[in-house]
Amino acid sequence: MATLILGTVGRVIGGPLGGLVGTFLGSVLDRSLLGGGKARQVGRLSNLAVQSSAYGEPIPRLYGTMRIAGNLVWTAGIAEHSSTSGGGKRGGAKTTSYTYSSSFAVILSARPVAGIGRVWADGKLLRDAAGTWITPATMRLHLGGDGQSVDPLIAAAEAAGGAPAYRGLAYAVFEDLPLADYGNRIPNLTFELIADADGTGAGAVVADLCAAAKIEGVAPVGIFQSFGGFAAAQGGSVREQLGQLTELYDLRFVDDGTGLGVCAGPAVASITLAADDLGSHDASSSPHEARSEARGAGGQLDDAVALGFFDPARDYQPGLQRAVRRADAARIAQVDIAAAFSADSAKGLAGALLARRNAARVGATFQLPPRSLDVRAGTAVRREGDTTTWSVRRWTFANFVSEVAVERKPVRLASAAVADPGRVHDAGDSAAGATTLHLLDLPPLFGEAAGPRLYVAGAGASPGWRRSSVALSLDGGETYTAIGEVGAPSVVGTTVSTLSAGSGDRWDRTGRVEVELLADSLWLESRAEAVVLAGANLALINNEIVQFASVEALGGRRFALSMLLRGRRATDVAAHPAGGRFVMLDPERLLALDLGSEVIGRSLRVRATGAGDGATQPVAIDFAGNAARPLPPVFVRCVADGGDAVFAWKRRSRSGFAWLDGVDAPVGESAESYRVEVRRGATLVRAVTVAVAGWRYLAADRAADLAGAGATVTLAIAQLGDLAGVPAHVVFILP
């Protein structure tokens, strides 16, 4: 603030020169008032997790194993795919659905790589460590060799000669990646890239970077601390590229007379300087001190060093570890490095860096005779009789005098540190696992037009399961055709207790059934009775459709269901032993497949083709087309009229299950008719077709059928439509 105020006042009084003086005085005042507490940043950490397609973006050189986003360099655009369902004779209106995919290439490294591990899309695992694709994808990895060929997809999409091979650059090409999971856009992809299988060290990285900049002959000297991976991802000169490593590992270049090398400070042997050598000076010059020391201002001490890095134990998420000299740290140096190592290593490096920074504030200049020419930049020296170790930063030789500028090295570096890496964020990176499928041949659901329809419910027990494509076979499994995918998992499981037979015309307030769901992520909830009557909590137990109002969580994946409505959608009310299937009927989670009437009566097979379904067996069903069949009538009764037996019943309609007018249900078929069959035991004794909801069993026919008074018969009544309906079976003792 003083800088701004005094600069303005100075310009008013003394013009431009006065403004310059005022600005300078104001800056001094600001520093005295505010101190040096602002954190300093050195080598800002490159953002390796954000993919870019901008021109001029640097291409990183990768070493060891790192997670990198890379640069999007080519795309064929977003392709639109359409599919139509419905329509036909009784299928209702046609529905056209659209999906999108894209083909593109991503540059990953400016030097060759050995392979690839995991791949993430928008932070979610797309390919696991075993090489399994969670979501099916086609990807080709080009390792970056000098002789690599043009990718065939890019070559086919571009004009002749317009497709580069990107020789020397490692890159990945995706072909028709489905975009439904990513908002129909190309997701931000990150790759676990393996450049050197055994990791690497700072010396080897420096030598390679120098070679890439045409600085030949630089070789690592001594022992270097290794790290899991490193990304030279900053633009600019080699000096800028090396800044991170030089700062953190105390690197320096040395020349031993045979070539240029790079060494790490702690690995260089110390040379002891004799007391007589320290007195050398240039006799032709004016007398001066042969040795001088300078001590930096106390305010320049770093109170803490904060080190940013990438943590392999946390899927290469950015980590931060601090080394602190005093608790009330005011001056904090921020140092970031695009390297992968453990939290313990990061804390140890931060401690060593803090010690070196604060020791180096004391410097000195020594003048030595020609026999001390082996004391060069990078050498560690001690004065005879002194325990202080100095590191040579600059070296000159003139008039037979060697002058070296040194800085003090710390008495001891920080010992091995134990650090808390923080909690690992679970991004759902578990393997997809196998898909469990259920095929449902049901009456019409959710107000849909009546017609042959097969529902497919799918889910997975693995926490990483998200979706699976499915395929249908009409020829006993010889060939399969893709029919779509099950997206969000259906709530499926198994009954673990028996459910007694009940009534389908009232609330069952005493019945109860326990179910165990397939996965920990699945859940059931209670609903008010009015909400249930409006259609909520619709489920299938074996082949009976039920609803439930009350849910009790029993722990684990088990739930107890009560307050039941039985026999929904005209399904049979039955007793169900433990071990039956349980499927929630949620239209948003079921895959509905409209089939032609020619498929009715055939055996169908459906198999999952997701990432974890290599060994999954297909599921078979004998398809009856129940959604296209009239429903069985109800309330069948019999009265005597003379010697005749008069039967009557109420029809049910598949055109809608709601009783809207309080009078009668619509016919729901082209005409109303019924087939009535009379059986005595297993023998069919009479079959008739009637056009109304009733039939008179004449006395003469009863006599001919041996169905007189007291005879027991089974009446089967099926409404007729384009297909014969599901019959209602009722046993009567005839009057």
Descriptors:
735 residues; disordered N terminus; elongated; 44 strands; 9-stranded mixed β-sheet; mainly beta; 7 helices
- The structure class reads mainly beta
| Approximate shape | elongated
Between the first and last Cα atoms, what is the distance in angstroms? Answer: 108 Å
Helix coverage percent? 10-25%
Overall number of strands? 44
Measured by DSSP, the beta-strand proportion falls in 35-45%
Largest sheet: 9 strands, mixed
| Mean pLDDT score | 82
Low-confidence stretches: 1-46, 282-290
The count of helical stretches stands at 7
Rounded radius of gyration (Å): 41 Å
Q: What does this protein look like?
A:
The chain is mostly beta strands. The protein contains 7 helices and 44 strands. Strands 1, 2, 5, 6, 9, 13, 18, 19 and 20 form a 9-stranded mixed sheet that branches. Strands 16-22-23-24-21-17 form a 6-stranded mixed sheet.
